[in-house]
């Protein structure tokens, strides 16, 4: 496997250089050179060697024609801070010509991440649908190598012909890219290409223009969970209730005590009695829901994990009645409990966390139960997104139900789940078995 991996790296580097430095015409001439060189090896019985010589001469002249390409262009992007995986993003790029001559016949392309994966990353990667490939592709693994490279690059891009840019002038154009994955997409700069006079080879120049785009998880049309509206007492209820739109409920008047906030003074009563009087309020009760993501994924559950993250992001934006609190509970480098308050503004913080979350490998699923136990009495309802439906996850669901929490469970597995007797067998409408890679079929639209 190590030998194949090193061969893949060398082959990819050569292939990338050829794709960048030669036009489609150049690829044709290069193919003609190779074919004629093979056929014309015996110069006595065929004249194909003359075609090989001519092709080689054309390529050499074309490469010489690309020398001296040093445009003095400055690039600046105007793009949003966030995008969504799988959705096309349009943005503008401005190019200023700081040189003394006009630049003509140029093509522009985004320069994405060109780093190559490590052996460990390649070995643990699982291409979606790899099990459906033929035996040779599965055994050798070059399609998986190409998939890992595409994921590291992170986006689908295109080439954009530029209009002529006069000396001291500028031009703006619209670019498009389609993010392939969630997370941070790094854009180190832009690549400029100019073909030689024979249109066989291309001169390449890199423009430094570093940018980072946060790509949010893909989202689906998931129906909103049907969770109860039972109110529970929340510590610090007055301050918290104000943030979720609950009004402070007046209880009574009493004498001022040291430490009471001055804003609660009741001035009319003070004027009547001659001593300070304050208003007393009742601590509020309000609804709190939890959204739990199971991040405890094995290496072969990569596709299921990505689908679970997308499903959780979809639920964040679909949770009903946001005049209540929503807690996102998950594990990453540590255990996270993120609370979004009134309205949809809190959704962005949760989506940003989901965009960068990684599978948890260094702790058991039981640690999630310990975190939930600390605040279980505050929660009215809970939506759980689980990676499978094994005994360990069923035990977590049984425990939550034993705490009196109404549940909506989504189990994302590699294969379909038979509805066998279990903790959710008596509530099939609240249990949603899902197959990894088929969320679009489960939630069309």
What does the model show?
This protein is an alpha/beta fold. It folds into four domains: 1-62, no CATH class; 70-113 and 154-216, Immunoglobulin-like, CATH 2.60.40; 249-283, no CATH class; 286-442, 3-Layer(aba) Sandwich (Rossmann fold). Helix content is 33%, strand content 27%. It has helices at residues 2-21, 24-39, 48-64, 119-124, 135-140, 142-153, 237-243, 267-273, 302-318, 345-356, 366-375, 391-402, 439-442; strands spanning 73-78, 82-84, 89-97, 107-111, 155-156, 160-161, 170-179, 183-195, 202-216, 232-233, 249-255, 277-282, 285-286, 288-293, 325-331, 335-340, 381-386, 406-413, 431-435. The strands form five sheets. It has a six-stranded mixed sheet with strand order 16-15-14-17-18-19, sandwiched between helices. α9 links the parallel β14 and β15. The protein is flat.
CATH topology of the largest domain: Rossmann fold
Largest sheet: 6 strands, mixed
Give the CATH architecture of the largest domain.
3-Layer(aba) Sandwich
Q: CATH superfamily of the largest domain, called what?
A: von Willebrand factor, type A domain
Q: Which SSEs are present, and which pair or pack?
A:
Layout: H1 2-21, H2 24-39, H3 48-64, E1 73-78, E2 82-84, E3 89-97, E4 107-111, H4 119-124, H5 135-140, H6 142-153, E5 155-156, E6 160-161, E7 170-179, E8 183-195, E9 202-216, E10 232-233, H7 237-243, E11 249-255, H8 267-273, E12 277-282, E13 285-286, E14 288-293, H9 302-318, E15 325-331, E16 335-340, H10 345-356, H11 366-375, E17 381-386, H12 391-402, E18 406-413, E19 431-435, H13 439-442
Parallel strand pairs: 2-9, 14-15, 14-17, 17-18, 18-19
Antiparallel strand pairs: 1-3, 3-7, 4-6, 4-8, 5-7, 8-9, 10-13, 11-12, 15-16
Helix pairs in contact: 2-3, 9-10
